[in-house]
TrEMBL record:
Name of the molecule in the record: Formate--tetrahydrofolate ligase
Pfam families: FTHFS
Gene name of the record: fhs
Reactions the enzyme catalyzes: (6S)-5,6,7,8-tetrahydrofolate + formate + ATP = (6R)-10-formyltetrahydrofolate + ADP + phosphate
Species of the source: Dissulfurispira thermophila
InterPro entries membership: Formate_THF_ligase, Formate_THF_ligase_CS, P-loop_NTPase
Lineage start: Bacteria, Pseudomonadati, Nitrospirota, Thermodesulfovibrionia, Thermodesulfovibrionales
Length: 587
């Protein structure tokens, strides 16, 4: 019998379930993988040779494609990953061949306050410890590849500073005239390390490098991670790696990884990482884990490769987009689907009574502190007011032409009256609604959700993008701000406006996708504004360029590419049982 999630922590539930989990060979066999397509890492997880699978099954029709998104969350999160796993378990209970495709967690939130995103309760991806602590090394490969580009940049700057053109020529180098005040990239590390956001490097003598301002970003914000998420195969990946803009020269021209002659070596670090990882739910359904970009500062999707493999092997593949419909789903819709050529059959919007109360006027919960008592007592009025945010998210999905399914991710503290209010309002808006108790009961608790999603997948949809790639950049930003976020318009800093005009004047740059950076805690760019804010304009303070990934990245609000570690981080409660070697305290 599984442990009761109302009495035990997630890591304890996972540890108990792992005693009876399937071997990776059983998972692969049930999924229909051939022996040479499985690359095992021990007995319980491994990688899949995507190229062999896609070649063998190239003529097989794809299964149904489902995306899981959410309403604007509280800082505690509303259970998208848990719902993704629970939905897979529920569809599995209905006798369907089903997979999940989720992101690999970053060490930053795992060791901070958010947790590892393995799911929760009786709907988790296992084994939990390797999932949470590096898995098969993909993020380490990303860090090595990315930081190698910075090594190539800084060493070239040092040599150009110290040598004449003639001396450079003898070393088979040409002068790139890199502008130290216009370096696009930073170093990366996979932790939330605010003290590394802004640093000075090259202190010392002539042999200690070129002195300049620099800094660190979190690994999952790296363009290499974004490329892993959107690349379709090795050839596509290699081409994208060579287009990464590391810096600009003194005339304002881009200096790429290809210019630095490092793109090939960076790709070499990433060869194994291109193969998606294969794990399982607590109930034994296969889960692909691949790529892990954040959604508020990056694309927020698992990989196209994982989805393509899963859709060839299963009747249903459930993927998850980071954060809410305004961020994760918008990027799934207008970026991931555009690059993959895949079209979803249904979209699940996860809502909790807790988040609805927050949007309806309850005190905002603070991670690491007890949840306010207001959330433990019935308040239908707050819930009804909070559904304004949910209805806004439903309309975002409808703009894409896809049938939405609202999942009320039920907590055992929710009341019948609160749940009835949500169902009544959502059904009046033309959305399917299902109450799911997968956290507490696993697949059995997700049967209502599974049935609603299967039904939605059979409905004809009319998928369409919000914009075409010939739409000017500022028009795109306005479309996203006004039609997705609900803003009254867009304002730009002088620097962002100049960059936008330059991009629009460049035929190659003008056709890149648009990947917004914005807080996930509000539809607006102010995290303190809940519900559906009115009378505001999106402020774009900067625009970054990810030519390799194929993105232009407008940055709105006070968002940093390096999060900070809180005063009560998770690592304070993580330890190892020295008798068994088991890790305890992960969540």
């Amino acid at each position: 019998m599984p442990l009761d999630p109302t009495k035990y922590a997630d890591w304890q539930i996972a540890e108990a379930a792992e005693k009876n989990m399937k071997t990776i060979y059983q998972i692969a066999d049930e999924l229909g993988l051939q022996k040479e397509e499985l690359l095992p890492y021990g007995h319980y997880y491994g990688k899949v040779d995507y190229a062999k699978v896609l070649e063998r099954l190239k003529n097989k029709p794809d299964g149904k494609y489902i995306d899981v998104t959410a309403i604007t969350p509280t800082p505690l999160g509303e259970g998208k990953s848990t719902t993704t796993i629970g939905l897979v378990q529920g569809i599995g209970k209905r006798g369907k061949k089903v997979t999940a495709a989720i992101r690999q967690p970053s060490g930053g939130p795992t060791m901070n306050i958010k947790g590892s995103a393995a799911g929760g309760g009786l709907s988790q991806c296992i084994p939990l410890t390797p999932f949470s602590l590096g898995l098969t090394g993909d993020i380490n490969a990303i860090m090595n590849a990315h930081n190698l580009a910075m090594v190539a940049l800084t060493s070239r700057m040092q040599h150009e500073f110290n040598y004449t053109d003639e001396q450079l020529a003898k070393r088979n180098l040409k002068r790139l005239n890199i502008d130290p005040r216009n370096v696009e990239m930073k170093w990366i590390i996979d932790f939330c390390a605010q003290s590394l956001r802004n640093i000075i490097i090259g202190l010392g003598g002539k042999t200690d490098g070129f002195m300049m301002n620099s800094g660190f970003a979190i690994a999952v914000s790296s363009e290499v991670m974004a490329i892993l998420a959107v690349a379709k195969d090795l050839k596509d990946f290699r081409e994208r790696m060579g287009k990464i803009v590391v810096a600009y020269d003194k005339n304002g021209n881009p200096v790429t990884t290809e210019d630095l002659e490092v793109a090939g070596a960076m790709t070499a670090w990433m060869l194994e990482a291109l193969n998606p990882n294969l794990m399982q739910t607590i109930e034994g359904q296969p889960v692909f884990v691949h790529a892990g970009p954040f959604a508020n500062i990056a694309i927020g999707q698992s990989s196209i490769i994982a989805d393509k493999v899963a859709l060839k092997l299963a009747d249903y593949n459930v993927t998850e987009s980071g954060f809410a419909a305004d961020i994760g789903f918008e990027k799934f819709w207008n970026l991931k689907c555009r690059y993959s050529g895949l079209k979803p059959n249904a979209v699940v919007i996860v809502a909790t009574i807790r988040a609805l109360k927050c949007h309806g006027g309850a005190p905002i919960p603070v991670p690491g502190r007890p949840i306010p008592e207001d959330y433990k007592t019935e308040n239908v009025g707050w819930v009804e007011k909070g559904t304004e945010n949910l209805l806004h998210c439903i309309n975002i999905v409808k703009k894409a032409g896809i049938p939405p399914v609202v999942c009320i991710n039920a907590f055992y503290t929710d009341t019948d009256n609160e749940i009835k209010a949500v169902k009544r309002i959502c059904e009046s808006a033309g959305a399917r609604v299902a109450v799911s108790k997968h956290w507490q009961y696993g697949g059995e608790g997700a049967l209502e959700l599974a049935d609603a999603v299967i039904d939605a997948c059979n409905e004809e949809n009319h998928f369409k993008f919000l914009y075409e790639l010939d739409t000017p950049l500022r028009t795109r930003i306005e479309l996203i701000a006004e039609q997705v976020y609900g803003a009254d318009g867009v304002e730009y800093s002088p620097d962002a406006l100049a960059k936008a005009k330059k991009i629009e004047a460049d035929p190659e740059m003008a056709k890149l996708g648009t990947c917004m950076v914005k807080t996930h805690l509000s539809l607006s760019d102010n995290p303190n504004l809940k519900g559906v804010p009115k009378g505001w304009k999106l402020f774009v303070r900067d625009i970054l360029t990810y030519k390799g990934a194929g993105f232009v990245v407008p940055v709105a609000g006070a968002i940093t590419l390096m999060p900070g570690t809180a005063s009560d981080p998770a690592y304070r409660r993580i330890d190892v049982d020295t008798e068994t070697g088991r890790v305890k305290g992960l969540f």
